[in-house]
Amino acid sequence: MNGKIGLEEHFAIRETLQDSAGYLPNDCWSELSNRLLDIQDDRLRQMDKNGMEMMILSLNAPAVQAIPDPRKARELAIRANDELAEQVAKRPDRFQAFAALPMQDPEMAIEELERCMTRLEFKGALVNGFSQVGTPENVVYYDAPQYDPFWAAAERLDAPFYLHPRNPISSWAQIYDGHPWLLGPTWAFGQETAVHALRLMASGVFDRYPGLKIILGHMGEGLPYSMWRIDNRNAWVDAPKNYPAKRKFCEYFQNNFYLTTSGNFRTQSLIDAILEIGSDRILFSTDWPFENVDHAANWFDATSISEADRLKIGRTNAAKLFKLDRR
Amino acid sequence: MNGKIGLEEHFAIRETLQDSAGYLPNDCWSELSNRLLDIQDDRLRQMDKNGMEMMILSLNAPAVQAIPDPRKARELAIRANDELAEQVAKRPDRFQAFAALPMQDPEMAIEELERCMTRLEFKGALVNGFSQVGTPENVVYYDAPQYDPFWAAAERLDAPFYLHPRNPISSWAQIYDGHPWLLGPTWAFGQETAVHALRLMASGVFDRYPGLKIILGHMGEGLPYSMWRIDNRNAWVDAPKNYPAKRKFCEYFQNNFYLTTSGNFRTQSLIDAILEIGSDRILFSTDWPFENVDHAANWFDATSISEADRLKIGRTNAAKLFKLDRR
Amino acid sequence: MNGKIGLEEHFAIRETLQDSAGYLPNDCWSELSNRLLDIQDDRLRQMDKNGMEMMILSLNAPAVQAIPDPRKARELAIRANDELAEQVAKRPDRFQAFAALPMQDPEMAIEELERCMTRLEFKGALVNGFSQVGTPENVVYYDAPQYDPFWAAAERLDAPFYLHPRNPISSWAQIYDGHPWLLGPTWAFGQETAVHALRLMASGVFDRYPGLKIILGHMGEGLPYSMWRIDNRNAWVDAPKNYPAKRKFCEYFQNNFYLTTSGNFRTQSLIDAILEIGSDRILFSTDWPFENVDHAANWFDATSISEADRLKIGRTNAAKLFKLDRR
Amino acid sequence: MNGKIGLEEHFAIRETLQDSAGYLPNDCWSELSNRLLDIQDDRLRQMDKNGMEMMILSLNAPAVQAIPDPRKARELAIRANDELAEQVAKRPDRFQAFAALPMQDPEMAIEELERCMTRLEFKGALVNGFSQVGTPENVVYYDAPQYDPFWAAAERLDAPFYLHPRNPISSWAQIYDGHPWLLGPTWAFGQETAVHALRLMASGVFDRYPGLKIILGHMGEGLPYSMWRIDNRNAWVDAPKNYPAKRKFCEYFQNNFYLTTSGNFRTQSLIDAILEIGSDRILFSTDWPFENVDHAANWFDATSISEADRLKIGRTNAAKLFKLDRR
Question: Which residue intervals define the domain Amidohydrolase-related in the entry (chains A, B, C, D) (predicted)?
Fold first, then answer.
């Protein structure tokens, strides 16, 4: 189909380029780094060839989240967002933007989100998982109470928040030690991000800010398949929930979350996602440059769903969520 | 349907009973401990009422795996297996057995598996994830090289190996700290067991012992939904695999693994599993006493699959895998 | 779920009651006739018990369509519509109406549709398949050219048109002779209605009146499963379409048709329909009194789809299609 | 995948070639007639290119079934079967055969089936729907009592019976008059064959000969989607079945029927079929030469099912059903 919109589509600036090294074999680095730094050239050709009208761009990972010093994190975020705004201004018909945010300091994050949403006309934020705050070992997730004002701001600004993966630090996930092939998109990304999402659900933040919209990539980081069991294990036990939130996990998942197809071009999983969360909350994405646009598009254009859902997932859900057709 | 066979069905002996405390609220303990200790009484009534002909019984968790001293682990395993053999002998038409194994010492594990398979006529083994060896902090997974002779023995004895979940120890999974509601069957069980399974696949053990049969509970611990991405992320990168095994993860998954429905009574997930691994490798189970037999059976008897698959998943796959009809 | 809306829900007036005899065994007649004649009593109790907020009511079958004399057909339609309007007026919060139409004469049909839509505030029309015109053997389908003004009117009035089944007359479908068990809802209803729908698609009426909305019951009368083959058989043959319409059958199906679940409470078929036409075009219905409200509701409330789709199919699609919430 | 086996794969002899004219536009006739008459040349190239190891060949339609004179029908069947046997003898590793049968006379049909199964080593029979007997208007279906000895013979010979479509004669299906685009594979083939299959189910023939194996092409001629409704309409009516057979339609469908993918290369429908009848009863086929081998194979090799099911549907189900690996 033509007119597809993608929303997990990355770029790098010089300062963050090296963050993407190491995920792929060395002999891919030249290609990958070119892909990350390019916006107006090959990227547009790939989009043109594959019926992709728009990318909502975001900084590569982990970038800002891996800078323990909040002021340096903020500085980098601002620089990246400003560079991105310039690129978008050249082709606003083809590119829009997600903000990078210095989540190390909730106040700074709010300030930058507000600047991006109002002055730069960004479409939301994309954050690469937990932040390291102060020291590399001080890992902070956004269900922590100090983020409450941030979520209030995200709701107030109606800014969808894309929770993008990153690898756990080694001391937090020893199970992968000596098994580097399980890190990154193979497995660790999904587990890390799914747990972060579950922590948010359990925290009660969606009770306080029911208008929050969280986006998960990679067909939901495994959550759709397991969501029933998450709420229903030990069903004979009539016990009060033991977490702060008021409702079942699945209610937040169904009401506050959106999924994208980034990097998970599997029809079976897409069908399962449709049967769990419904096609109104699933959105096409490629995960460029870590995945090819043609791989994503060829699969999606032919995947075994209704044409009505293809249009929604491929385009109109995004147009609605990000108010793209009101320009 | 009548004649259902289940294979994630637990019991406890006095020495292991406390291992099941703490998972459920205190006011359930009386009921849960009764359920665990009973074999011939209420358990059979539940089975009778719900069309369940047979349970292949296994010790509760983590039990043997959590005893760092290998000799004590062996002692407990032997005692549990002997007690189980006695119970099975009373109603071999209704109960069969999986061996508990002192995996802390591969030689002891081999010896006990051999004893159970040949002398006690057990149907395989059920092991509760990693073992703590020597000290509680020394966590050992079975992809470690010292387990190669064990896997050789399991293949030689044609003993299906049920890889059952346990919680990670705290220092290995800090992400759950302060979020106990994510432990156990809600989430941590699945993640822990899925990674253990992936480590086995990557290790090459299935290249060396292609006849191995590994069983995963809970509809595959999330793996079916993510299996495509595990092998296909970054598909434009034409790189050699960076793990010891020769083939893709999914090939081992499709050829050496079986899934059960234990504790995951979700039709959508079952359909996805059928479309990923096929109905010949999915088997009914309840996860008694942590789940109710009626919850499992009522769901399964009505779940939206073909009657042919209902018969296979409910009964004949197990009869074939465990050679139950050749008695 | 509560708040369900159904739109294949029948009643009879004295003059049409006998039309429903013969479909069911004689010993059901007392119950069936009571069900057909009742509106405000047991019907409402069934709805209350099963979370059904509203029924859009329609006359039983074949009724008006089986009266060869157009004026008598019109007379009956008017009487039925007037009686229905009176019933709806008593509980407009629980009942709305579809018009019966004397399709024997397109002009009369237009006139009565207009009267019902504007003066009686009906929500559309429900017509029981082909009409017998002049003589019982003169069978007329609505793809005939004389119905063009009728379709123009239906589009202009934005009146959804429910194409309800009836049995073929014997000389038109000898294959059922001596096999009465294949008539009615078992098989002949579906075949008859599916072909009528295909004839409409091929006729070009949707090219001329693209705003037409046709509703099919019984999960689409078999069409979703076969729609691909209808357009794609002999795919190597690059031939011009040999029917009057401009586009493929499936394009009209996807853009001009809605399906209901009436009398087809099968999860597998619902999933297939979702994957063919999308959940925005599927609507809950029971087919009362030929089916039980509890059978429909118990199935639907638990069927294996997303909660988002349950809400849409159960209620909001109908509310939107019939502008029910704008009252 | 390699090694695929197909079983709705047609050829013509000179005498039957014209039977295939008229289904396709005239400018395809040269290509189609070449395809029908060729066996050892382009057909094998198509198979080689698309991973198809074997075709079980059958005569085109309606051929023998449309010859009212039984002796002439027999004569033609014998000639076609003998010619086919010669072709198969040249490449028994690539071709096997279904018998054409003069069903006009049950005794002749038995005799020819026996000759084909025992002397010619055919794998079963393929019959093109009803037969015209004596006169073109005398249409006979095989649920008629005179076919009982035939079904006894088919069971005794363990000969799977492929019930292939043909168009109804005009006087039997007036609904298609003036709508030729609904004839053939678009719609009429499926309806005609589905009803024939339902008549067989209702007749009790599967009670008397439970070993019968009937094969339906085109993903089951629409039956899987509607099978539930066929048995469950009017579920509140507790009535005795009103047809001769002892059990529900679906029980015969599930126990005596096999489906092929011929001409229906739709993943959604395949998934529905798997969820209705199970993957052990679905078999790959192309419908050559009316469909392309590459269309069938490219779809099937990538369709969203498990690899285990791909192997079964693509090859091993056929190998088992026709005992092909015992050569």
Answer: 35-324
